[in-house]
Write a structure and sequence with these properties.
With 541 residues, the chain is mainly α. The longest helix has 53 residues.
Length: 541
Amino acid sequence: MLDEQETRSLVEKPLNNSKIVSETPKSPLGFQSLTLVPSKTDLCKAPLPNEEPPRRPRRGSALRQVLIALIANLGPVNTGMVFGFSAVAIPQLMSANSTIKIDSDQASWIASLSSLSTPLGCILGGYLMDLLGRRTTLLLLEVPLVAGWLLIATAGGVPQIYAGRLLVGLGSGLVGAPARVYTGEVSQPHLRGTLAALASVAVSLGVLIEYGGGAATEWPVLAGLSAALPLAAFLLTALLLPETPAWLLTQGKKDKARTALHRLRADTCDVERELADLEAFRANIANLKSSAGPTAPPPKQHSIIKSLFEPAALKPFSILVIYFLIYQFSGVNSITFYAVEVFRESAEGIDDYLATVALGVVRLLFTILACGLLRRCGRRPLTFISSIGCGVTMLGLGTYMYLAKEAKEAGLAPPPSWIPVLCIFGFTAVSTIGYLVVPWVMIGEVYPSRVRGLLGGLTTCAAHMFVFTVVKTFPFLQLTAGVHGAFWIYGVISTLGTVFFYFFLPETKGKSLEEIEDYFAGRRDTLDTPKKRPIVISQPV
């Protein structure tokens, strides 16, 4: 039995500041009643009845998510370097003092070969990141990039340059979907739009690096320096990046998914709640599939091929493929891959290399601007700016080239040379705002998690097939339709694309991956946020 002192200590322990105001006499058995008055401090600390413990915030560390996304998007920087390299290397290779001589046909192959091997990398990258994981694929893709750049740097002839371009193109294809899907899966909805746009910023940065390097040094040195970036990306990915929780859950690795979330969000975030949401969504999808009918196969045996033809996958895939078709045939990469030559043909009296570097700066700045606008304005408005703006500037550039040609044949003074410069820079600005950002961001948003990697790879594959077609046919198009005719064709395609975007492109800004998947699967009619109805309070008469 406890003595009086022990009893007092047990009673006073939970309420250290309480006071004993009355005591009853001890009973024959030794019991005594104590009346306590808790202090204000104890009343504040004591939990109220039915009160839930305070929840941790749902939003994780923004700094961690940004830093991880930056590392994941070092690969797209290399993609931009692959794009920009031909613009500065081809004029050097075609110069009179070049040690390796090339003609216009070889120049078109050097420019386009990287895009020919990129689709293979896209398909392989999509398959590998679903099979091996997003992080492992990000590591593997650096190998062909390093090998390709070193092969170009040490090339003694055109075949070695061709081989090097094929390898760096393969690496660019491998990185396309994994970088964007990884960023989409590790970032939370309020940051996803901005962080997913980092891939486009990275591509523009890579283009600028090559433009600037080509103006300062020779192409073999530039290729050798370019090999340093994939090496750095490999080391940083191996040391700092975790696997995505979404992919780990598809493999049944819940504990590893929890650990990855802690690394991505920090300990202040409600990791358990986010993990529960991810599991609940996966369970809901499994239940919907199992209840589809008595003949429906169990979720684990559900064919991936069949999943590709479900509305949740087929609808967004069709929209994005047509988006990329319009975007590429608006002439964006014809300008990117042949920038020096376009300036040389259209604007006399300017330093074509300096103008190309300035064009790279404009592209980078407007890509950064697009990241902020993407979060504020959404996907549709920015796409309209690009489709209409690219149409107007391409039609304007084509018209200038036509009038300049007519004036030259008639022996008249050509129109002012600032007009084509304004059109080219304006085209780059408006194309970057939407075309160069929106579809790449949506790759990481619109596909179901089960086939996100495969469809992301197929979409990137289609995009780079369009790049190859546009870049390879640009010289032929100039020859057959005239320089002005090529730009007119690009302008008409972009302008007409506005109609498609208006009717079919959904707005995914601020929506979770689960909401987007439900929309394309037909489980919700719209992605629009329902308007809040006013609350009507009835009062008795």
